[in-house]
Structures are given as C-alpha cells and as structure tokens.
Design brief:
The complex is a heterodimer of chains A (161) and B (377). Chain A folds into two domains: 112 residues, Four Helix Bundle (Hemerythrin (Met), subunit A) (Up-down Bundle); 41 residues. Chain A contains seven helices and no strands. The longest helix of chain A has 25 residues. Chain B folds into two domains: 60 residues; 286 residues, no CATH class. Chain B is built from 13 helices and two strands. Chain B is globular, with a radius of gyration of 22 Å. The mean pLDDT of chain B is 84. The chains are: A mainly alpha (161), B mainly alpha (377). Chains A and B meet through helix 2 and helix 3 of A and helix 4 of B.
C-alpha cells in the first residue's frame, strides 16, 4: 500500500516538477510548481510527519506560490522569448543537487533502515523549538522582521518627496 | 461471512462514507441557507423574498440549481482554458476539505488529525491561489482586479484570523479540535459553561475571528472583491452557469467552515450551554450554534454597507492585528493569574487598556482637506 502510494506521489511530483521547469508559459509553470508542492506535502504525510506536511502546504502554497504568481504579474513579461540555454542555472542546480546528495548520504537514518520512530506530534516539535532550538528560532524571527521592515521601507520611498 | 474485509478496504470505505455524509449535509445546508438568506434579507427590507416555488418558497434552491445546470457555459475566447476550468473546482475542493476537521458532535469528527487547526488554515490558504487562477485565467481586467483585491484582503485578514486562534491553542495546549472542545466541557458554579468566549480574551478573540471570517468568505461589508458597482463581479465576472454556482457554493461552504471553527474554538463546540441540557444530542447543539452564527452573517449583510478598500486595509493592519496580539498577551495573563476571577479581571484590564490606547491613537475623525490624487508614472 505504502509503496503504491509512494510511486503515485513520486510520479505526480516529478511530472509537475518537470512541467514547472519546462513549460514556456510562465504562469502555467508557476501553477505546476504549486502542484508539485502538494506532492511534497503528500510525501510528508506518507512518512507520518503530519505537521511538516501541513506547514509545507501552508507556507509553500499559501505564501510562496502566491508570491511567485504576484511577482510574475508585477514584472513585465515577454512571452515565448527564447533566451537560449541557461548555463548558470545548470551550475546552481548541480551545486544544490550535490549539496543535498551529500547531506542525504551523510545522514545516519538511511543506512539503518526502517527504524521505529516515535510519532512526531505537534507538541514535541513545539517543545524542541522552544527549548533546544530556541536561538535559531529567534534568529529566524529577527531575520524575517528585518526583511519585513526592509520591504516596507522600499514601498514607502515616494513618501519622502 | 468468513473473516473480515482487508484493512485498507475498510479504511477507504469509511473515508468515502464520511465524505459522502459531509457533502450531503453541507450541500443540503447550502440549499437551505441560500433560500433562508433571501427570505431573511427580504424581511429586513420589507418584502417577502422568494415565495413562488414550493411551500413558502422552500423549493427555490431546486429551481435555481436546475437553472444553473442548463445555462450555457461560456468560456471567453482568449481565456486560459485549463486555468479557467480548474479554478472553481479547486476553490470548492478546498472549502470542502476545510469542513473535514471540525468536530460536529461527540466522536463525530470526520478526519481526526493531530494538527487539525493547522490543517484548516493550510487548506484555507490554498483558496488564494484558486481565486487568483480564476482572475488570471479569465483574461479580463475586472476579473484580475477582483482577484487582486480578494488576495490582498485575504492575506491581510489571515493574520488576525490565525493569531486570534493562537490564544485558544495556547491555553488548551493542543492543535487538535477535539481536545479544544473537551477543554470547554466544564461548568463554573455548576451552570456557567467553560467556553472561551466567556473570558475577556476569548470574547475579543471571538469578535476579531468573526470579522476576519466575514472577510475571508468575502461577505458584506467586506465584499470588495466582487463589488458589483465597481468591478462587475470580480474574479467571477467571466463565469456562468454551473461554474458560477460552484463559486457561490464555495463561498457558502467557506462560511460554514469558518463558523464551525468559531463554534469549536470559542463557543464550546458541541457541548450544551447548561449541564442539565446534556440529554439533547451533541450534534444538535453544534448545528444550533452554527445556525446562530450563520444568521449573524445574514444579519450583517442586511445591515451594513460595503467598506472601501483603504478603510478595510487600515482596519486590518492598524486595529485588528494589534488587538489580536493583545488577545495573546491577555490569555497569557489570564493563565498565569490562575484562570479565576482575578485572572479574568487582569485579562480584561489588558484588553481595555490596549483598546482605549488604540482608539485614541487611531482617531478616525478625519481632518477634511482637498482631495489629493496620485497617478502611476
């Protein structure tokens, strides 16, 4: 059952990822990207990491996808203009892939096999965030606040005139 | 019969039964609500409302449904066909999903998820993308403007909507809707229910939540995205026939979902208001409370004129958001002062002080001046 579900979700996710990467119509690519996030959230659900899956939907579809869509709307579009092959994109993609591969191969859980993991409840995540990882959490908070204020300053520019 | 059906079959069948029942109940409620809304609005405006089809006009939704089904489905020639087609489906699907985690009665939560509240908002946040798809896919200026307005107000009011839920989650210590309902099952002095709406922070959070809910479901006075005097029908301009009906359905289902969550969080869920009324089935209480909230939705629609976009945004960021954060602090004060009368008073004091300071600070009595215009360069 789980293998079948995995295969279905994997095909779904890869299809939309490919569509997002190759579709020449920018808006369709962005929407495929959002659909791909649904697939990734489904993976988290399959792994029993319900909270992470929900946050994935919440943040990536509710916020990031909307942000991307807005960015496309607010920038000028030159439809179907062939920009040629983008080598810098390839370099970044290979670097990210290598980084992920390195991290995955280093992580111990892959080699151990099916381990018995205690159910990851929301409460445990909250406790971990508020005790052991409180400094990273605060740093992220400060970073996001700074970004928010920065965005506001950028928008408020014409008030000074 | 020998043996049992395999586990996965039982799971699938029981899920399907849940979904079918959920759809049946809420589609019936939608039909009933659409006719009752017109009736009540009619009463408020000194007219009868629908009274031709069936007894007291109760079969009006059937007639409307048939009309919508046999209407011609028009898709604009320059529309993005796929996106235009998918938008109403997505918007209705998310509205239905959000209904799945609300506890309708004792042991009557269709889908028990540990992070049920989070699920509700995660699914709700997908609506923005669906609205955008409708606006962009129609390839129409009015549609796109309506979609932009809708997304702007949804994002702005999502903050107070979610932050007003946090005090409840904090006090209960769980994101599970069932646990939140269970936390409200006791009675003070044997008759005063333990509902969160009876605490100062709870009452404030409930009001803020309800107003944000009005915005999220695009209801008057916050129906700016579909203001018909300005932008025809917003993101629904280019939809006709059954697709339009689907948007309409999604709006009502969203309204049911937000009201249901308000009942769960603040009004004690399916618990009876008095301990000796517990013999009445729990789902009756839930739907009674839901009906009261839905009536308020209609009442507000019959009473208030539409707000302006800038008024709405100012209200969200300058009043709703600070008040929502105040609820959080007030709930913490209530908790640490012992959840008793003293805590009640302290919590009330926090809210009152912030409210007074905010209202002094946000003096809305305008200093009138010649109108200034700003143009895009």
């Amino acid at each position: 059952m789980s293998t079948v579900a995995f295969a279905v979700i994997a095909i779904f996710t890869l299809t939309f990822a490919l569509a997002a990467a190759t579709n020449p119509r920018l808006m369709h690519a962005a929407l495929s990207f959002a659909a791909m996030f649904v697939g990734i959230a489904a993976f988290f659900f399959l792994l029993g990491a319900e909270f992470v899956g929900l946050v994935q939907i919440f943040v990536y579809i509710g916020a990031v996808a909307v942000l991307i869509v807005f960015t496309i709307l607010l920038t000028r579009r030159d439809p179907e203009k062939d920009r040629g092959f983008n080598w810098s994109g390839v370099i970044v993609a290979v670097a990210v892939f290598a980084g992920l591969l390195w991290a995955i191969l280093r992580s111990p859980s892959v080699s151990i096999g099916p381990a018995i993991v205690k159910a990851l409840t929301v409460k445990r995540i909250g406790e971990a965030l508020m005790t052991h990882y409180v400094w990273p959490l605060l740093c992220v908070g400060v970073l996001l606040t700074a970004a928010l204020i920065g965005a506001l300053v950028l928008v408020m520019e014409d008030k000074r005139q | 019969m020998s043996g049992h059906a395999p586990g996965w079959l039982i799971q699938i069948v029981s899920s399907l039964l849940n979904i079918a029942l959920l759809l049946f109940i809420f589609l019936t409620l939608f039909a009933l609500m659409s006719v009752l809304e017109r009736k009540i609005l009619g009463r408020m405006q000194n007219r009868y409302g629908p009274n031709r089809v069936g007894p007291y006009g109760l079969l009006q939704p059937v007639a409307d449904g048939i009309k919508m089904l046999i209407k011609e489905d028009i898709v604009p020639a320059r529309a993005d066909k796929v996106v235009h087609f998918l938008a109403p489906i997505l918007i209705a699907a998310t509205a239905i999903l959000a209904l799945g985690v609300i506890p309708y009665g004792r042991n009557m939560t269709p889908f028990v998820i540990d992070g049920g509240i989070l699920f509700f908002f995660a699914v709700g946040s997908t609506t923005e993308l669906a609205v955008f798809m409708a606006g962009w896919g129609s390839n129409n200026k009015f549609s796109l403007l309506g979609a932009m307005r809708a997304i702007a107000q949804m994002i702005s009011y999502e903050l107070p909507l979610i932050i007003t839920v946090l005090p409840v989650v904090m006090v209960v210590g769980s994101l599970n809707p069932d646990k939140i309902v269970f936390a409200q099952k006791y009675y003070y002095f044997g008759f005063l229910p333990h509902w969160f709406v009876l605490t100062p922070w709870g009452a404030t959070a409930f009001l803020l939540f309800f107003v944000s809910g009005l915005v999220e479901s695009n209801r008057t006075p916050f129906d700016v995205p579909e203001g018909e005097s300005e932008i025809v029908a917003g993101h629904m301009t280019e939809y006709s026939g059954f697709k339009y009906a689907t948007f309409f359905l999604a709006e009502y289902l969203g309204m049911f979902a937000v009201s249901g969550l308000a009942v769960t969080l603040f009004l004690g869920g399916w618990h009876a208001p008095l301990p000796w009324l517990g013999f009445i089935p729990s789902y009756v209480w839930f739907f009674a409370k839901l009906s009261v909230l839905l009536f308020v939705f209609i009442w507000v629609r019959g009473t208030l004129p539409r707000m302006r976009v800038d008024q709405m945004m100012n209200f969200a960021w300058k009043f709703m958001l600070p008040m929502a954060f105040t609820c959080l602090i007030s709930a913490a004060v209530w908790h640490y002062a012992g959840r008793r009368l003293l805590g009640w008073l302290w919590s009330f004091a926090v809210i009152a002080v912030v409210y007074i300071v905010l209202s002094l600070f946000l003096d809305t009595r305008k200093k009138f001046a010649p109108r200034t215009y700003r143009f895009a360069e």
